[in-house]
Design brief:
Chain lengths: 522, 98
């Protein structure tokens, strides 16, 4: 019974992993990049002028003047103050739709010049946001289809993880086993290392990922238990996310309520954190209030939000104390764990690496499956050899494609129309080209070619940055622009990693030719 | 239980996959509804809890469908679970109405 049970779990592990492996790999890679969304964004908007030393009061005065000028009819205003992750002032507002003037209802985000207070004109870019959104909207399909496909992939991943734990009886003993240069055995060991060490992360990220889309995938539950239709679902979402507040009276008179008075009151209440955002919500209505958000790097919970509302006698401040519901509190915690917004720069790298380990786990699993298929017969069937070749293009083409995405941000003409969309098109075009190359080219050196191409692309990125902007590595160092510098150095780090990988593969393959052993990768 | 060329076995395997995916989804939905109807003062939070548990239920059902010895038993398992959950939901809605 036991052997048979393990065998069927092995089957389930294999197939739940293989069927959506490429989508899962894509989700893990682009999702991991999402942990550096703000940093990528800053690099992709090189026109932004950073300012760390401006006073909050000055920044807010500049921002309010611009908002009054450009967004007087908007119901919601936000000012983002310089922080270590986003060291610049940014204003954003919700532009109301106007069918007559053909204005779409949408959010605008504009960085400000700290010296003049003017809006900095920046290139049209998809930025870090579109890159991280790829991991659940899959870009070219309608959003609903994207959510359902990623959820399905997530469910299969969850099943793959649980069955993976079941089939590895001696999971921790196996973790410390590494048999190098043994072909399939080595790949199994690699797969185990990438899976077991970050297993808590993999379980957390997969479960919470599926959970975050539950409003879409499990919508029938809301239909039957709460109400049908978009309106009711919206209402359900708001009701389920309800926050509990402690309300306190302040010294501010209702007539005095403005962003400045609210900010100075908030700073007296929260002394150990920097202010991140200031918002004016529901402007011009009865529910108008001011929100003060503090930096979220202090804890997993977003409890550091203060809302100021004018009442008849005094202005009252509402301090969020947590979600009203217990399940909602767990949901909230898991959401924050998934997004990692609370993480400082070190933990952010841990998140990023764990995500890449997830991608490596999927990639090595796919390679193991292909190796087993090709070992069955002397000449593998056409379908398998096609999948094997496509697999190389998918696995190594994606990092190359992301590199090309960054390059396109610097190389596409600044005045090009639809430029932001074209950056994403470049990403997918590069990926498809890598896949085509692997399908057409019949040589055994595809891994090498792709690894060296990836190394080259990532090596070139900081150089192109230097040639097309004034942000050379030296300049970034002199101006203490750590985000720009960090991004460029990270690109070189990736280039070195791909170069090292290529060296290892070429050495192993040279060895396997001589000894007539199986090649390292299939 | 490997992929076999024999048509009967292939059919049995395909049936199990269908049971796991579709049957599992149905059970996950029913379990979420049942959980959301458990007595409690926060109805909305109950629905959230139900939806969150549904993915755990889904995973367990898929694994169970592939654990049992025959495709026939898997069918029996899925239909029994659906029937039980239907019954439970009915009971809960009756007790709620009282």
């Amino acid at each position: 019974m036991k052997a048979r049970f393990r065998q069927s779990m092995g089957w389930l592990h294999t197939w739940s992993g293989v069927v959506f492996a490429w989508i899962l790999y894509f989700i893990f890679v682009t999702g991991s990049l999402g942990y550096f969304e703000n940093e990528i964004d800053r690099w992709m908007k090189p026109e932004i002028v950073t300012s760390n030393d401006i006073l909050d009061k000055q920044a807010i005065d500049l921002a309010m003047a611009q908002l009054g000028e450009h967004a007087d009819d908007a119901s919601q205003w936000y000012v983002s103050l310089p922080t270590s992750r986003d060291p610049y002032i940014e204003i954003s507002w919700l532009q109301p739709g106007d069918p007559e003037k053909q204005v779409r209802r949408q959010w605008y985000e504009k960085p400000l010049e700290p010296n003049t207070g003017d809006i900095t004109s920046i290139r049209d870019t998809s930025g870090g946001e579109a890159l991280y959104r790829l991991h659940y909207n899959l870009h070219y399909v309608p959003p609903l289809v994207g959510y359902i496909l990623t959820s399905l992939a997530g469910m299969l991943m969850l099943i793959g993880l649980v069955t993976g734990v079941i089939i590895h009886r001696k999971i921790f003993a196996e973790f410390f086993t590494f048999r190098s240069a043994k072909g399939l055995r080595s790949w199994l060991d690699i797969h185990n290392v990438f899976s077991v060490l970050p297993l808590p992360f993999h379980l957390m990220i997969t479960y919470s990922g599926v959970m975050l889309l539950m409003g879409v995938t499990m919508s029938k539950v809301i239909d039957s238990q709460y109400g049908e239709g978009r309106q009711m679902h919206r209402q359900f979402y708001d009701a389920s996310q309800l926050e509990e507040y402690t309300t306190l009276a302040t010294e501010i008179l209702p007539a005095q309520l403005n962003v400045d008075t609210a900010l100075s009151d908030a700073k007296q209440r929260v002394t150990d954190q920097a202010v991140n955002f200031v918002g004016v919500i529901d402007r011009g209505t009865d529910t108008e209030h001011i929100e003060i958000w503090f930096e979220t790097s202090e804890g997993v919970e977003f409890a550091s939000l203060l809302k100021y509302r004018a009442r008849t006698e005094r202005v009252e401040v509402e301090i969020a104390t947590g979600k009203a519901g217990q399940a909602a509190a767990v949901y909230d915690l898991l959401e924050h764990l998934h997004e990692g917004l609370f993480a400082d720069i070190y933990l952010r790298w841990v998140y990023f690496l764990c995500g890449l380990f997830g991608a490596a786990m999927i990639a090595s699993g796919m390679i193991i499956w292909l190796k087993k298929q090709t070992m069955k017969e002397a000449t593998p069937p056409l379908l398998i050899s096609l999948i094997a070749r496509l697999n190389r293009g998918v696995l190594l083409g994606l990092p190359i494609a992301v590199g090309c995405y960054f390059l396109s941000n610097r190389l596409l003409p600044v005045e090009m129309s639809g430029r932001a969309d074209w950056e994403i098109h470049v990403l997918f075009a590069a990926w498809v080209l890598c896949c085509l190359f692997c399908l057409i080219n019949r040589s055994q050196n595809q891994w090498l070619t792709l690894l060296w191409s990836a190394a080259l692309v990532y090596f070139v990125i900081p150089l192109v940055n230097m040639l097309t902007t004034h942000h050379s590595i030296i300049n970034s160092l002199l101006n203490a622009d750590w985000l720009m510098l960090g991004f460029d150095l990270s690109m070189w780090l990736f280039a070195v990693c791909f170069g090292l990988a290529a060296t290892v593969v070429s050495k192993k393959d040279a060895g396997s030719h001589l000894a007539k052993k199986e090649p390292l990768v299939c | 239980m490997s992929l076999s060329a024999k048509p009967v076995q292939a059919f049995a395997l395909g049936w199990r996959v269908l049971l796991a995916l579709v049957g599992g989804f149905a059970i996950a939905n029913l379990a979420a509804i049942a959980i959301s109807q458990l007595p409690g003062d926060n109805k909305v939070d109950g629905i959230v809890a139900g939806m969150m548990w549904s993915f755990v239920v889904y995973t367990l059902v898929v694994i169970s469908v592939f654990t049992v010895r025959t495709a026939w038993r898997a069918t029996l398992l899925v239909s029994t679970l659906i029937a039980l959950l239907y019954g439970l939901i009915h009971l809960l809605s009756v007790s709620e109405a009282l």
